[in-house]
Specification:
Structural class: alpha+beta
Radius of gyration: 14 Å
Order of helices and strands: HEHEHEE
Strand content: 25-35%
Strand order of the largest sheet: 1-2-4-3
Shape: globular
Number of helices: 3
Low-confidence stretches: none
Largest sheet: 4 strands, mixed
Oligomer: single chain
Helix content: 25-40%
Number of strands: 4
């Protein structure tokens, strides 16, 4: 499907579809708040978050932190000799 995650994920939730893994690569502003709230409702086992802005990644991880723990973060220098860095994070659902 092609479209914005913040539009598609709530629609899929209403249709009863719940993925086990979600992969996101949001803009520099981070994930849409509605999308993050839907992720917390769906509770996929894993969330792979590719970020081009470590500060918005931290903000979104903080929001998801009540249900998810950071399993792994890997910075990737895709733009040598600049201050920009991509971060690939794996968040996993906390066990109750």
């Amino acid at each position: 499907m092609t479209g914005k995650a913040e539009d598609l994920l709530p629609k899929w939730l209403k249709e009863g579809w719940k993925p086990d893994i979600i992969i996101v690569d949001p803009p520099r502003t981070g994930c849409d708040r509605q999308f993050l709230q839907t992720v917390l409702k769906i509770k996929p086992k894993k969330l792979i978050y590719v970020s081009c802005n470590p500060s918005t990644l931290a903000k979104d991880i903080d929001f998801l932190g009540r249900e998810y723990k950071v399993e792994y973060i890997q910075p990737v220098d895709m733009f040598p000799q600049t201050a920009h860095v991509e971060c690939i994070s794996q968040l996993v659902l906390k066990n109750d």
